[in-house]
Amino acid sequence: MSLKHWTCKSVAVIGLGYVGLPTAVLFAKAGFKVIGVDINSKIVKLINTGISPINEPGLKELLKNMLNAKLLFATTDYEYAVKNADAIIICVPTPVDENNTPILRFLEYAIENISNFLTKNKLIIVGSTVPPGCIHNYVVPLIEQKSGLKAGVDFWLAYCPERIAPGKTLKEFIENDRIIGGYTYESGKMAAQIFRKVVKGRIHVTDVKTAEVAKVAENTFRDINIAFANELALICEKLGVDVMSVIKLANTHPRVNIHFPGAGVGGPCIPKDPYLLIHPAERLGFKSRIIKTARMINDMMPSHIIDLILYGLNLVDKSISNAKITVLGTAYKGGVDDPRLSPAKEIISKLIALNAKIVVFDPHCKETFGAKRKTDIEEAVFKSDCIVVVTDHPEFKKLNLTRLKQLMNDKPLIVDGRRIINPLEAERLGFIYLGVGYIV
């Protein structure tokens, strides 16, 4: 069958996590019959009763609408999904291990189960972020071996990685440009054909390996930019200059766009994608310089927050031992409830090890990383010696500093890991203010 005669009416989405579930509901909204597949039966039951396991704006309502329209249902049955779908989109996670080596077992499990029931004229799209070369060297041989079918002849294969941010998933899925890498020219065109029914942004079709590199290059660039901002902040601390003023002025140059420094880089993508990029190249003898250094800088920022806390407490003659410290935010970024790889974990763990009394407040995220959790910010800061801003939640940008100071102990300290509090305002109210890139 050729592209001219191929039609896609039904789609199976494998993996109903942060990427897969939005993918499923948006393809259903576009009119496809969607079968969502997940190995977790609890997640499947929740989805089929209209309960989203992911807190994402608009997702719950859209899920219910698609279920009611009978355009979507979830199952653990790979056989049913593969046999009844024209296209299969794989959205399983691809993390790295403690040695920063890609973990592909979730992808392998999905591919093996798809291959067991694969028949001719199906389109398989890998939506998971993968290390360059993975499709040619890993995915294709595994499918062909398990299914007995030939890629590009008996079935089509493409790569279309996500380009979404938690908190804006549905909007960005639809509006952002997408990159599609075809294993063959026709495979890329087929994948583009169905994504054009969902995505309003432009579709850029290329070969598989180029698409693989482009995807991980995007987040690697962001990681390096943040690392530069963090190192610039450390320089500014030594020189007694506010890094935020420096960045604001530097960014007035038409060809400069420096990101902001912070307490560390978290989330499911940026900390691992640089390792996905360099891993296959290192196996061929390449030695990373910039990329690994950037990762090292960003990974050290939680420790720098600890240094700022110790420095600030010393300024007011207080000991870290038994000091009450209020950590604002355990989510990895503002406006979401996702704690994955949040710098708060390392910060809290080190503070606990130093015998400090730690209380956390996060209006979105319930994770505490071993600290006591308060659901009211005034309770969280009551008799506190130090506030540490770890997450840039919108609520934290509107803190009533006057009220918080009244509740805290004498000589209160603010350590701003996200630079969302006005230093001059905090100092005017009587706080000792220290921020990433700001020590006076």
Chart the SSEs and their pairings.
Layout: E1 10-14, H1 20-29, E2 33-37, H2 41-48, H3 59-68, E3 72-75, H4 78-83, E4 87-90, H5 105-115, E5 123-126, H6 134-147, E6 156-159, H7 169-175, E7 178-182, H8 185-195, E8 203-207, H9 208-239, H10 243-250, H11 273-282, H12 290-315, E9 324-328, H13 343-353, E10 357-361, E11 372-373, H14 377-381, E12 386-389, H15 401-407, E13 413-416, H16 423-428, E14 432-435
Parallel strand pairs: 1-2, 1-4, 2-3, 4-5, 5-6, 7-8, 9-10, 9-12, 10-11, 12-13, 13-14
Antiparallel strand pairs: 6-7
Helix pairs in contact: 1-3, 5-6, 9-11, 9-12, 12-13
What does this protein structure show overall?
- The structure is a single chain.
- With 440 residues, this protein is α/β, with parallel strands linked by helices.
- Helices cover 41% and strands 14% of the residues.
- It has helices at 20-29, 41-48, 59-68, 78-83, 105-115, 134-147, 169-175, 185-195, 208-239, 243-250, 273-282, 290-315, 343-353, 377-381, 401-407, 423-428, and strands at 10-14, 33-37, 72-75, 87-90, 123-126, 156-159, 178-182, 203-207, 324-328, 357-361, 372-373, 386-389, 413-416, 432-435.
- Helix 1 packs across helix 3 (59-68).
- The longest helix is centred in the middle third of the chain and has 32 residues, at 208-239.
